[in-house]
Amino acid sequence: MLKLAEKRKVASLATLGNLAETAVSVPEYGPESQPEVSLVGAFAQQLSALGVERAFGVSGGAIALLFDALVESDIELCHFRHETGAAFAAAEAYFAARQPTMVFATTGPGVLNAITGMSAARWDGAKVILVSGATSSPQRGRWATQETSSYTMPQDVLYTKGPIFDFAVRMEQASELPEVLRRLGQGFSRPGGFVAHVCLPMGLQSKRLEVSQESLRLNMRAPSVCEEDVADCAALLKQSKFAIWAGFGATEAAPLVQELAERSGAKVLCSPRGKGIVPENHPLYVGVTGLGGHDSVTDYVTHEQPERTLVLGSKLGEATSFWDQDLVPRGGFIHVDIDPEVPGTAYPESPTIGIQAEISHFLTALIKHFPEKSARASFPVIRRDEPVPLPAQGHRPVRPRVLMNALQRRVVNATDALVLAECGNSFAWCNHYLRFSSPARYRVSTLFGSMGHTATGVVGAALATGEKAVAVVGDGSMLMNSELSTAAQYQAPAVWVVLNDAGYGMCRDGHGALGLSSAGVDFPQVDFAQMARAVGADGVTVDSEEQLDDALNQAMEASGPFVVDVRIDASEPSPLLKRFESLIKQGNSKNVAGWEA
User: Fold this and answer.
1) In the structure, what pLDDT confidence band is assigned to residue 147 with cuts at 50, 70 and 90?
2) Could you tell me which of 442, 449, 493 has the C-alpha nearest to residue 472?
3) Are 132 and 57 in contact (CB under 8 A)?
4) Which residues lie below 8 Å from residue 186, measured CB to CB, with a gap of 6+?
5) Is 128 helix (H, G, I), strand (E, B) or coil?
6) Contact 232, 280 (CB under 8 A)
């Protein structure tokens, strides 16, 4: 069995290889056919052929036939406790294994519950398909139980391409299946994310089909790179110092990003989702921008003043940039992204050269314009924010910085486990203090930023790889949705490290910074270790810094799901000051005038 790091490397290389040309088999239906099968049976078989290995969801009457077909198929079925958690798990399973995943949901509340997780998958760039049920046409408008039709649900949101789905359809005829599969095959094989919704009315699921052995071959190619554009970019970058700002879209091109930096001497900034694209101990690495970011970034752009910045695979949205004008170089941005709508959007008033390209293809072409070695690579390293080790002193409760030091030692440095950081103070602490040498080791969702994403996503990541996955989460997120019971049922090797401060810590800190009331953000402290044991998992409570190492060792050695409930010191503010500054500048404060003055 491949170790986790090797699995991720193989998956990444396979993905990169598929970008050049991907052949997708789609079944045809006709007279030269095999014995009849049900529509849902054929659908499950063909989703497996398209690379879907796992399905996450909650069953219900309207998808009972689909559920049964999944049980009989080669797709590994994971029955969750809530559709939102299932969708988050499906997204993180995709990122962990780089294989498209499926979410299944019944009518009414089932499909609506899944929408939050599907939105997060779309924002983050996952490849996930939601398959749901719908009320059959003869029963629509007649108050069917959990009716899902134009009488009760917004059709344009659920069943059309738009902000949530790259492709969506409610099938009404079995003859639509080949075209639906063709579109899914195209989506799964293209670069970037792909989030789809296929709705199967109850009366359609049992229809019989004759499936041919013949198939249609689809050869998908990534957008080509214009050599003239690359040469022009190289000429501009070679005129003077430039910086590289790497985002999540450059994850699979990490070796090429590092090679360009070393050939050119360019310093590298990264977004929170891009941590590890260049090892965070590399001499050319400056720091993280945005949420939980580093002051060394501001120091760099202020003192070295690069003429241009090459942006690779980042939207430069608020969580990455706070739209800070200090980060805009004199000569502007050269912004490369697979999505042509991204360049220039975050900073519309700044000069931007937009390049639509797959990052690996662009960098492969660009690197040819730089020599093997450059004198710039010997530039002195500027000051970089480094975590200061704080020795455990028996402090009660645990200082979050001490917890981060322990996580770095016992999880990041000592294992190859994937680390996922939850929305809120958790990802601020992790973004700021943890250091990674590979982007495959860290996952954070700063775009959609839904609480509960990581608390449930860690189960999907652990099930997809069969290896340890560690979620750093807040107690508020654990109370929303954790899927602990699901993890116990499937013995997922998932670990939750809970920052337990008996309240919504980010709200508590933010309200104070914005001059607002903090009433209602606290709640009774919960014993999450006991909760874990109650559902069949295991856990330990940490209320002193001296207990951290032993507790983390227990968690990493456990064969099944494990919760480390850390009672943290809520008086230590998280590194989110710039987020609060951004809110104040947007007018979300009682003291905007005072701030601007």
Assistant:
1) confident
2) 442
3) no
4) 24, 218, 220
5) strand
6) no
Residues 6+ apart with CB under 8 A from 386: none
Q: Which amino acid is at 571?
A: S
CA dist 169 and 178 (Å) reads: 13
Torsion of CA 27, 28, 30, 31, to 10 degrees: -60
Q: Which part of the chain has CATH 3.40.50.970?
A: 22-220, 400-580
Strand partners, 270: 246, 288
pLDDT band at 244 (very low <50, low <70, confident <90, very high): very high
Tokens 């009331």 identify what position?
Answer: 517
Residue from 478, 457, 494, 486 nearest 121 by CA: 457
Q: What is the chain's mean pLDDT, rounded?
A: 86
**Least confident segment among 374-378, 562-566, 571-575:** 374-378
Query: Is the previous residue joined to 138 through a cis bond, with omega within 30 degrees of 0?
Result: no
Q: In 3D, which of 421, 425, 433, 431 has the Cα closest to residue 388?
A: 433
Q: For the CA atoms of the chain, what is the radius of gyration? A: 25
CATH architecture designation of domain 22-220: 3-Layer(aba) Sandwich (3.40)
For residue range 377-435, list pLDDT tens digits in order: 455 555 566 666 667 677 789 999 999 999 999 999 999 999 999 988 999 999 999 99
Per the listing, tokens 């899944």 go with: 114
Diameter of the chain by CA atoms?
A: 78
Q: Note the pTM of the prediction, 2 decimals.
A: 0.87
398 bridge partner residues:
568
The pLDDT tens digits for 249-278 are 999 999 999 999 999 999 999 999 999 999
In which element (H, E) is residue 597 found? none
- Indicate the SS3 state at residue 443: strand
Q: Domain 400-580 belongs to what architecture?
A: 3-Layer(aba) Sandwich (3.40)
Beta bridge partners of 130: 103, 197
d(CA 220, CA 304): 43
Residue 27 pLDDT > 90: no
Task: Retrieve residue 560's tokens.
Answer: 């099944």
Question: For residue 394, what pLDDT is reported?
Answer: 74
CATH 3.40.50.1220 domain locations along the chain = 232-378
Superfamily of domain 232-378: TPP-binding domain (3.40.50.1220)
The span from the CA of 565 to the CA of 271, in Å, is: 29
Contact 565, 500 (CB under 8 A): yes
| 208-209/37-38 β-pairing | antiparallel
